[in-house]
Amino acid sequence: MDRRASQVMHVQVAGQRYKVVSSSSQAELTRLAAAVDAKLAELAPRGPQQGTPPSIVLAAIALAHDLEQERAKRQRVEVKIRDLLRRILVRIDSALESTAEGEGSRSE
Question: Can you give the residue range of the structural domain that contains 97?
Fold first, then answer.
């Protein structure tokens, strides 16, 4: 985890300016705020309702759902990779054993 000192910054979401205390960079916070804005635009039509607490909560829930889906995908890929590596290692071990046995019979 990054050990930068926390600092006060401002971000804008749904036309509202928010003060945030974070150890993240301003660029990162701006990027994340833009992601929330994009999700708000996707879920709520432009207008007076877009920046309301219910629409922001809906965007937060949708982003949390997206995050969970990505984590699940990553976990599935990790399982596949571990299985593939295990199978490769078994084949390598088998090949090394065969080579060692072949060399042992030649020296006799």
Answer: 7-106
